[in-house]
Amino acid sequence: MTDDPRRLALTLLRRIEEEGAFANLVVPSMLDRSSLSRSDRAMVTDLVYGTTRLRRACDALVDRHITSPPDAATRRILRLGAYQWGWGGVPAHAAVHETVALAPRRVRGFVNAVLRRTVEGAPPSDIMWPSAASQLSVPDWIFDLYVAEVGRDQAVASLERMNVPPAPVVRDDGYVQDQASTWVADAVDARPGERILDMCAAPGGKATALAAKGATVVAADLRPQRAGLIADNAQRLGCDSGQLSVVAADGNSPPFTSGQFDAVLLDAPCSGLGALRRRPDSRWRVQPSDITVLGALQQSLIDAATALVKPGGRFIYSVCTINGSESIDHHVPEGWEVDRSQPPGEWQPFGSGWRVLPHEADTDGMVLMRYRRTT
Ligand SMILES: C[S@@+](CC[C@H](N)C(=O)[O-])C[C@H]1O[C@@H](n2cnc3c(N)ncnc32)[C@H](O)[C@@H]1O
Asked: Ligand 1 test: best mutation among 221, 244, 246, 318, most atoms within 8 Å of CB?
Protein backbone atom coordinates (compact mmCIF):
# COMPACT_ATOMS: atom_id res chain seq x y z
CA MET A 1 0.00 0.00 0.00
CA THR A 2 1.22 3.50 -0.82
CA ASP A 3 2.67 5.67 1.94
CA ASP A 4 1.77 8.86 0.05
CA PRO A 5 -1.30 10.35 1.81
CA ARG A 6 -2.63 12.04 -1.33
CA ARG A 7 -2.31 8.89 -3.40
CA LEU A 8 -4.07 6.87 -0.70
CA ALA A 9 -6.80 9.54 -0.57
CA LEU A 10 -7.27 9.18 -4.33
CA THR A 11 -7.58 5.38 -4.05
CA LEU A 12 -10.18 5.82 -1.32
CA LEU A 13 -12.14 8.34 -3.38
CA ARG A 14 -12.21 5.83 -6.24
CA ARG A 15 -13.53 3.10 -3.93
CA ILE A 16 -16.24 5.38 -2.60
CA GLU A 17 -17.31 6.72 -6.00
CA GLU A 18 -16.96 3.62 -8.17
CA GLU A 19 -17.43 0.70 -5.81
CA GLY A 20 -20.00 2.34 -3.53
CA ALA A 21 -17.80 1.85 -0.45
CA PHE A 22 -19.02 3.65 2.68
CA ALA A 23 -16.56 6.43 3.52
CA ASN A 24 -16.81 5.99 7.28
CA LEU A 25 -16.04 2.26 6.96
CA VAL A 26 -13.44 2.13 4.19
CA VAL A 27 -11.32 5.07 5.41
CA PRO A 28 -10.62 3.76 8.95
CA SER A 29 -10.16 0.21 7.68
CA MET A 30 -7.54 1.22 5.05
CA LEU A 31 -5.80 3.54 7.49
CA ASP A 32 -5.56 0.71 10.03
CA ARG A 33 -3.74 -1.37 7.44
CA SER A 34 -1.33 1.44 6.52
CA SER A 35 1.88 2.48 8.25
CA LEU A 36 1.09 6.19 8.02
CA SER A 37 1.88 8.58 10.87
CA ARG A 38 -0.90 10.06 12.96
CA SER A 39 -0.72 13.39 11.13
CA ASP A 40 -0.76 11.71 7.70
CA ARG A 41 -3.84 9.70 8.75
CA ALA A 42 -5.59 12.88 9.78
CA MET A 43 -4.66 14.38 6.40
CA VAL A 44 -6.04 11.40 4.44
CA THR A 45 -9.28 11.51 6.44
CA ASP A 46 -9.72 15.22 5.83
CA LEU A 47 -8.92 14.90 2.11
CA VAL A 48 -11.34 12.02 1.57
CA TYR A 49 -14.20 13.27 3.76
CA GLY A 50 -13.81 16.87 2.62
CA THR A 51 -13.56 16.07 -1.10
CA THR A 52 -16.55 13.72 -0.79
CA ARG A 53 -18.76 16.23 1.06
CA LEU A 54 -17.80 19.03 -1.30
CA ARG A 55 -17.82 16.95 -4.48
CA ARG A 56 -20.35 19.14 -6.28
CA ALA A 57 -18.74 22.40 -5.16
CA CYS A 58 -15.28 21.15 -6.25
CA ASP A 59 -16.69 20.30 -9.67
CA ALA A 60 -18.24 23.76 -10.01
CA LEU A 61 -14.93 25.37 -9.06
CA VAL A 62 -12.93 23.61 -11.76
CA ASP A 63 -15.69 23.50 -14.38
CA ARG A 64 -15.22 27.25 -14.86
CA HIS A 65 -11.95 26.37 -16.59
CA ILE A 66 -12.95 23.25 -18.56
CA THR A 67 -14.48 23.08 -22.02
CA SER A 68 -14.98 19.33 -22.45
CA PRO A 69 -15.75 17.04 -19.51
CA PRO A 70 -12.84 14.85 -18.33
CA ASP A 71 -13.09 11.10 -17.67
CA ALA A 72 -14.04 9.98 -14.15
CA ALA A 73 -10.47 9.29 -12.97
CA THR A 74 -9.25 12.72 -14.10
CA ARG A 75 -12.32 14.35 -12.57
CA ARG A 76 -11.39 12.76 -9.24
CA ILE A 77 -7.87 14.18 -9.35
CA LEU A 78 -9.24 17.66 -10.14
CA ARG A 79 -11.67 17.45 -7.23
CA LEU A 80 -8.88 16.51 -4.85
CA GLY A 81 -6.79 19.48 -6.03
CA ALA A 82 -9.75 21.89 -5.84
CA TYR A 83 -10.66 20.74 -2.32
CA GLN A 84 -7.13 21.22 -1.00
CA TRP A 85 -6.90 24.77 -2.29
CA GLY A 86 -10.51 25.86 -1.87
CA TRP A 87 -11.32 24.43 1.56
CA GLY A 88 -8.43 22.32 2.85
CA GLY A 89 -6.08 25.20 3.69
CA VAL A 90 -3.34 23.97 1.34
CA PRO A 91 -1.37 26.80 -0.39
CA ALA A 92 -2.03 27.17 -4.12
CA HIS A 93 1.40 26.02 -5.27
CA ALA A 94 1.37 22.85 -3.16
CA ALA A 95 -2.24 22.01 -4.06
CA VAL A 96 -1.39 22.16 -7.77
CA HIS A 97 2.07 20.60 -7.66
CA GLU A 98 1.22 17.68 -5.37
CA THR A 99 -2.00 16.90 -7.20
CA VAL A 100 -0.49 17.04 -10.69
CA ALA A 101 2.06 14.47 -9.48
CA LEU A 102 -0.83 11.99 -8.98
CA ALA A 103 -2.03 12.31 -12.59
CA PRO A 104 -1.04 9.77 -15.24
CA ARG A 105 1.30 11.26 -17.85
CA ARG A 106 -1.37 11.48 -20.58
CA VAL A 107 -3.53 13.93 -18.59
CA ARG A 108 -0.84 15.67 -16.55
CA GLY A 109 -0.76 18.76 -18.79
CA PHE A 110 -4.54 19.07 -18.66
CA VAL A 111 -4.72 18.68 -14.86
CA ASN A 112 -1.90 21.18 -14.45
CA ALA A 113 -3.59 23.77 -16.70
CA VAL A 114 -7.02 23.44 -15.10
CA LEU A 115 -5.75 23.53 -11.50
CA ARG A 116 -3.44 26.46 -12.22
CA ARG A 117 -6.27 28.47 -13.67
CA THR A 118 -8.47 27.47 -10.74
CA VAL A 119 -6.03 28.70 -8.08
CA GLU A 120 -5.34 31.89 -10.05
CA GLY A 121 -9.07 32.67 -9.94
CA ALA A 122 -11.24 33.89 -7.09
CA PRO A 123 -11.56 31.70 -3.97
CA PRO A 124 -14.83 29.84 -3.26
CA SER A 125 -16.09 32.68 -1.05
CA ASP A 126 -15.95 35.16 -3.96
CA ILE A 127 -17.13 33.30 -7.05
CA MET A 128 -20.52 33.38 -8.75
CA TRP A 129 -21.92 29.91 -8.09
CA PRO A 130 -24.27 28.27 -10.62
CA SER A 131 -26.76 27.65 -7.77
CA ALA A 132 -27.03 27.60 -3.98
CA ALA A 133 -27.19 23.79 -4.10
CA SER A 134 -23.90 23.64 -5.98
CA GLN A 135 -22.24 26.06 -3.54
CA LEU A 136 -23.54 23.99 -0.59
CA SER A 137 -22.55 20.82 -2.44
CA VAL A 138 -25.81 18.92 -2.17
CA PRO A 139 -28.11 17.45 -4.84
CA ASP A 140 -30.87 19.87 -5.87
CA TRP A 141 -33.56 17.69 -4.30
CA ILE A 142 -31.93 17.85 -0.84
CA PHE A 143 -31.65 21.63 -1.05
CA ASP A 144 -35.30 21.87 -2.18
CA LEU A 145 -36.46 19.55 0.62
CA TYR A 146 -34.67 21.65 3.25
CA VAL A 147 -36.09 24.89 1.84
CA ALA A 148 -39.61 23.39 1.82
CA GLU A 149 -39.19 22.21 5.43
CA VAL A 150 -37.45 25.13 7.14
CA GLY A 151 -37.31 28.06 4.68
CA ARG A 152 -34.34 29.27 2.67
CA ASP A 153 -32.28 30.97 5.39
CA GLN A 154 -32.49 28.06 7.82
CA ALA A 155 -31.86 25.60 4.97
CA VAL A 156 -28.65 27.37 3.95
CA ALA A 157 -27.46 27.62 7.57
CA SER A 158 -28.24 23.93 8.21
CA LEU A 159 -26.54 22.71 5.05
CA GLU A 160 -23.51 24.95 5.60
CA ARG A 161 -23.06 23.54 9.08
CA MET A 162 -23.19 20.00 7.71
CA ASN A 163 -20.17 20.76 5.50
CA VAL A 164 -18.03 21.17 8.62
CA PRO A 165 -16.87 17.97 10.37
CA PRO A 166 -18.58 17.33 13.71
CA ALA A 167 -16.71 17.97 16.94
CA PRO A 168 -16.83 14.71 18.93
CA VAL A 169 -18.85 14.81 22.14
CA VAL A 170 -17.52 12.28 24.63
CA ARG A 171 -19.90 10.99 27.31
CA ASP A 172 -18.77 10.49 30.90
CA ASP A 173 -18.42 6.76 30.20
CA GLY A 174 -16.19 7.40 27.15
CA TYR A 175 -18.78 6.73 24.41
CA VAL A 176 -18.61 9.24 21.54
CA GLN A 177 -22.11 10.39 20.60
CA ASP A 178 -23.79 13.36 18.98
CA GLN A 179 -25.18 15.80 21.53
CA ALA A 180 -28.73 15.59 20.17
CA SER A 181 -28.58 11.79 20.49
CA THR A 182 -27.83 12.21 24.18
CA TRP A 183 -30.93 14.42 24.42
CA VAL A 184 -33.02 11.64 22.83
CA ALA A 185 -31.78 9.17 25.44
CA ASP A 186 -32.55 11.74 28.16
CA ALA A 187 -36.06 12.19 26.76
CA VAL A 188 -36.82 8.52 27.49
CA ASP A 189 -36.51 9.51 31.16
CA ALA A 190 -35.43 5.99 32.12
CA ARG A 191 -35.72 5.15 35.81
CA PRO A 192 -34.07 2.41 37.88
CA GLY A 193 -35.98 -0.84 37.67
CA GLU A 194 -37.98 0.06 34.55
CA ARG A 195 -38.10 -2.38 31.65
CA ILE A 196 -37.29 -0.58 28.41
CA LEU A 197 -37.03 -1.76 24.81
CA ASP A 198 -34.73 0.01 22.34
CA MET A 199 -36.17 -1.45 19.16
CA CYS A 200 -33.54 -0.29 16.62
CA ALA A 201 -30.58 -0.08 18.91
CA ALA A 202 -27.31 -0.67 17.01
CA PRO A 203 -24.59 0.37 17.63
CA GLY A 204 -26.01 0.92 21.10
CA GLY A 205 -25.37 4.56 21.94
CA LYS A 206 -28.80 5.18 23.39
CA ALA A 207 -29.33 1.68 24.82
CA THR A 208 -26.13 1.90 26.89
CA ALA A 209 -27.15 5.37 28.13
CA LEU A 210 -30.54 3.99 29.25
CA ALA A 211 -28.89 1.05 31.03
CA ALA A 212 -26.54 3.49 32.80
CA LYS A 213 -29.63 5.09 34.36
CA GLY A 214 -30.47 1.79 36.05
CA ALA A 215 -33.23 0.61 33.71
CA THR A 216 -33.32 -2.98 32.47
CA VAL A 217 -32.85 -2.58 28.74
CA VAL A 218 -33.58 -4.93 25.86
CA ALA A 219 -31.60 -3.73 22.84
CA ALA A 220 -32.80 -5.13 19.51
CA ASP A 221 -31.61 -4.64 15.95
CA LEU A 222 -32.57 -6.28 12.68
CA ARG A 223 -29.16 -7.45 11.58
CA PRO A 224 -27.23 -9.91 13.77
CA GLN A 225 -23.93 -8.29 12.84
CA ARG A 226 -25.17 -4.89 14.00
CA ALA A 227 -26.65 -6.42 17.15
CA GLY A 228 -23.09 -7.68 17.78
CA LEU A 229 -21.91 -4.05 17.80
CA ILE A 230 -24.30 -3.31 20.68
CA ALA A 231 -22.89 -6.23 22.67
CA ASP A 232 -19.31 -5.06 21.95
CA ASN A 233 -20.07 -1.51 23.06
CA ALA A 234 -21.93 -2.68 26.17
CA GLN A 235 -18.96 -4.80 27.16
CA ARG A 236 -16.43 -2.04 26.46
CA LEU A 237 -18.44 0.40 28.59
CA GLY A 238 -18.73 -2.15 31.42
CA CYS A 239 -22.54 -2.49 31.20
CA ASP A 240 -23.84 -5.22 33.48
CA SER A 241 -25.29 -8.02 31.29
CA GLY A 242 -28.29 -8.22 33.64
CA GLN A 243 -28.92 -4.56 32.84
CA LEU A 244 -28.72 -4.77 29.05
CA SER A 245 -29.56 -7.77 26.87
CA VAL A 246 -29.10 -7.83 23.11
CA VAL A 247 -31.43 -9.49 20.59
CA ALA A 248 -31.28 -9.70 16.80
CA ALA A 249 -34.93 -9.15 15.85
CA ASP A 250 -37.10 -7.53 13.20
CA GLY A 251 -39.06 -4.71 14.80
CA ASN A 252 -41.91 -5.43 12.39
CA SER A 253 -42.52 -8.79 14.07
CA PRO A 254 -40.95 -8.40 17.51
CA PRO A 255 -40.45 -11.54 19.61
CA PHE A 256 -42.03 -9.97 22.73
CA THR A 257 -45.50 -10.21 24.24
CA SER A 258 -47.70 -7.12 23.99
CA GLY A 259 -47.86 -4.54 26.73
CA GLN A 260 -44.77 -5.65 28.65
CA PHE A 261 -42.48 -2.57 28.56
CA ASP A 262 -42.60 0.61 30.63
CA ALA A 263 -41.17 2.45 27.63
CA VAL A 264 -40.17 1.70 24.04
CA LEU A 265 -37.64 3.82 22.18
CA LEU A 266 -37.83 3.70 18.37
CA ASP A 267 -34.76 5.45 16.98
CA ALA A 268 -35.88 4.57 13.51
CA PRO A 269 -33.92 3.84 10.33
CA CYS A 270 -34.18 7.08 8.33
CA SER A 271 -32.74 9.07 5.44
CA GLY A 272 -30.17 10.68 7.75
CA LEU A 273 -30.62 14.08 6.10
CA GLY A 274 -29.89 15.76 9.45
CA ALA A 275 -26.60 13.92 9.87
CA LEU A 276 -24.91 14.65 6.54
CA ARG A 277 -21.76 15.94 8.25
CA ARG A 278 -21.28 12.57 9.95
CA ARG A 279 -21.51 10.46 6.78
CA PRO A 280 -19.69 12.33 4.03
CA ASP A 281 -20.99 10.22 1.12
CA SER A 282 -24.63 9.89 2.23
CA ARG A 283 -25.82 13.01 0.38
CA TRP A 284 -24.86 11.31 -2.90
CA ARG A 285 -26.21 7.91 -1.88
CA VAL A 286 -29.69 8.67 -0.53
CA GLN A 287 -32.45 9.04 -3.15
CA PRO A 288 -35.85 10.78 -3.00
CA SER A 289 -37.56 7.39 -3.36
CA ASP A 290 -35.82 6.22 -0.15
CA ILE A 291 -37.87 8.75 1.81
CA THR A 292 -41.10 7.09 0.70
CA VAL A 293 -39.85 3.58 1.42
CA LEU A 294 -38.47 4.61 4.83
CA GLY A 295 -41.69 6.45 5.71
CA ALA A 296 -43.69 3.22 5.23
CA LEU A 297 -41.16 1.20 7.25
CA GLN A 298 -41.21 3.78 10.07
CA GLN A 299 -45.01 3.70 10.26
CA SER A 300 -45.07 -0.09 10.49
CA LEU A 301 -42.35 -0.02 13.19
CA ILE A 302 -44.41 2.56 15.12
CA ASP A 303 -47.46 0.27 14.96
CA ALA A 304 -45.44 -2.69 16.25
CA ALA A 305 -43.55 -0.69 18.91
CA THR A 306 -46.61 0.95 20.47
CA ALA A 307 -48.30 -2.45 20.96
CA LEU A 308 -45.46 -3.50 23.27
CA VAL A 309 -45.97 -0.68 25.79
CA LYS A 310 -47.95 -1.12 29.06
CA PRO A 311 -50.98 1.08 29.73
CA GLY A 312 -49.59 4.31 31.20
CA GLY A 313 -46.20 3.63 29.56
CA ARG A 314 -44.17 5.77 27.14
CA PHE A 315 -43.29 5.64 23.46
CA ILE A 316 -40.39 7.74 22.20
CA TYR A 317 -39.65 8.14 18.49
CA SER A 318 -36.61 9.81 16.95
CA VAL A 319 -34.95 10.22 13.55
CA CYS A 320 -31.76 11.99 12.47
CA THR A 321 -33.53 13.91 9.74
CA ILE A 322 -35.61 17.07 9.78
CA ASN A 323 -38.50 16.32 7.39
CA GLY A 324 -42.07 15.82 8.51
CA SER A 325 -42.64 12.86 6.16
CA GLU A 326 -40.32 10.75 8.35
CA SER A 327 -41.60 12.07 11.66
CA ILE A 328 -44.63 14.22 12.50
CA ASP A 329 -46.65 12.97 9.51
CA HIS A 330 -46.72 9.48 11.08
CA HIS A 331 -49.48 8.55 13.49
CA VAL A 332 -49.79 6.49 16.64
CA PRO A 333 -52.83 4.23 17.20
CA GLU A 334 -55.86 5.23 19.30
CA GLY A 335 -55.29 5.14 23.03
CA TRP A 336 -52.16 7.34 23.00
CA GLU A 337 -51.68 11.02 23.87
CA VAL A 338 -48.85 13.36 22.94
CA ASP A 339 -46.50 14.25 25.82
CA ARG A 340 -46.21 18.02 25.32
CA SER A 341 -43.74 18.75 28.14
CA GLN A 342 -40.45 20.36 26.98
CA PRO A 343 -37.79 17.64 26.65
CA PRO A 344 -34.24 18.27 27.90
CA GLY A 345 -31.98 19.85 25.23
CA GLU A 346 -32.35 22.65 22.72
CA TRP A 347 -35.42 21.38 20.90
CA GLN A 348 -37.88 23.65 19.10
CA PRO A 349 -41.57 22.74 18.79
CA PHE A 350 -42.33 20.95 15.52
CA GLY A 351 -45.92 19.77 15.00
CA SER A 352 -46.71 17.23 17.69
CA GLY A 353 -43.00 16.80 18.38
CA TRP A 354 -39.68 18.61 18.61
CA ARG A 355 -36.88 19.38 16.20
CA VAL A 356 -33.32 20.65 16.32
CA LEU A 357 -31.57 21.91 13.18
CA PRO A 358 -27.82 21.32 12.68
CA HIS A 359 -26.78 24.97 13.06
CA GLU A 360 -28.97 25.73 16.06
CA ALA A 361 -26.87 23.89 18.64
CA ASP A 362 -24.10 22.38 16.48
CA THR A 363 -25.68 18.92 16.64
CA ASP A 364 -27.12 16.55 14.08
CA GLY A 365 -30.54 17.64 12.84
CA MET A 366 -33.17 15.48 14.56
CA VAL A 367 -36.84 15.10 15.34
CA LEU A 368 -38.15 13.72 18.63
CA MET A 369 -41.73 12.70 19.47
CA ARG A 370 -43.04 11.44 22.81
CA TYR A 371 -46.35 9.80 23.66
CA ARG A 372 -48.05 8.27 26.68
CA ARG A 373 -50.40 5.27 26.53
CA THR A 374 -53.75 6.13 28.05
CA THR A 375 -55.48 2.74 27.73
C1 LIG B 1 -30.67 5.15 13.60
S2 LIG B 1 -29.98 3.57 13.74
C3 LIG B 1 -30.04 3.30 15.49
C4 LIG B 1 -28.96 4.00 16.28
C5 LIG B 1 -28.98 3.58 17.76
N6 LIG B 1 -30.27 3.81 18.37
C7 LIG B 1 -27.92 4.31 18.59
O8 LIG B 1 -28.22 5.26 19.28
O9 LIG B 1 -26.74 3.88 18.57
C10 LIG B 1 -31.27 2.56 13.12
C11 LIG B 1 -31.04 1.06 13.26
O12 LIG B 1 -32.24 0.41 12.85
C13 LIG B 1 -31.90 -0.89 12.41
N14 LIG B 1 -33.08 -1.44 11.69
C15 LIG B 1 -33.46 -1.24 10.41
N16 LIG B 1 -34.59 -1.89 10.14
C17 LIG B 1 -34.96 -2.54 11.29
C18 LIG B 1 -36.02 -3.41 11.64
N19 LIG B 1 -36.98 -3.75 10.74
N20 LIG B 1 -36.07 -3.89 12.89
C21 LIG B 1 -35.11 -3.57 13.81
N22 LIG B 1 -34.06 -2.76 13.51
C23 LIG B 1 -33.98 -2.24 12.27
C24 LIG B 1 -30.65 -0.64 11.59
O25 LIG B 1 -29.90 -1.84 11.48
C26 LIG B 1 -29.95 0.45 12.42
O27 LIG B 1 -28.98 -0.13 13.26
From this structure: 221
Q: Tell me the pLDDT tens digit for each residue of 64-105.
A: 999 989 999 999 999 999 999 999 999 999 999 999 999 999
Distances (CA, A) of 230 to 28, 199, 248: 19, 12, 10
320 is catalytic: yes
| Stated pTM of the model | 0.96
Please indicate whether residue 251, judged by its CB atom, sits closer than 6 Å to ligand 1: yes
Decide: 262 in ligand 1 pocket, CB within 6 A: no
Distance CA 199, CA 125 (A): 44
Segment 237-282, tens digit of pLDDT: 999 888 999 999 999 999 999 999 999 999 999 999 999 999 999 9
Express each pLDDT in 112-128 by its tens digit: 999 999 999 999 999 99
- For ligand 1, whether the C-beta of 274 sits within 6 Å is no
The CATH label, of 3.20.20.140, 3.40.640.10, 1.10.357.10, 1.10.940.10, for the domain at 5-126 is 1.10.940.10
Residues with Cβ within 8 Å of 97's Cβ and at least 6 positions away in sequence, in order, are none
Task: Give the residue whose CA is nearest to atom 6 of ligand 1.
Answer: 201
